[in-house]
Design goal:
single chain; alpha+beta; two-stranded antiparallel sheet; about 40% helix
Amino acid sequence: MDDNPTVALNRDKFPGKWIGWMTVAMARISKLRVERHDGKASLILKHVIVVRVASFAFRFESAERLRECIKYYESKTRPSSRIAARTLAAELGEDWRERRGWEVERWFERLPMYLLEEPKRQKVLKALSRALTLAESGKL
């Protein structure tokens, strides 16, 4: 297996764990600086945590958002998409019916369904947990 030139070339191009002729891609975690698109300079630097896993890229503004996503993927059963009127009124005010249309989705309702399959869910959870550890330790 190691004396095959194709495997040797691909091993250099695509890092990860190699099993025979295929690679098991590892998650890529990075922190990117967000630049303003209006052309104005800013002294406040903003960064985004990007986690690429299972052919999908997650982008997080903060470690708190990352924790919310980890909490979502830890549960095997999905939360209801229904939001109680009392909760909406507390968050948006008494005129919430005029301010919020019914077609609005929450962040977890926009995720691709294939990420909820058990093998992918475990990969995503492992990558997100690793990203949180790196972000909290300052190594990211």
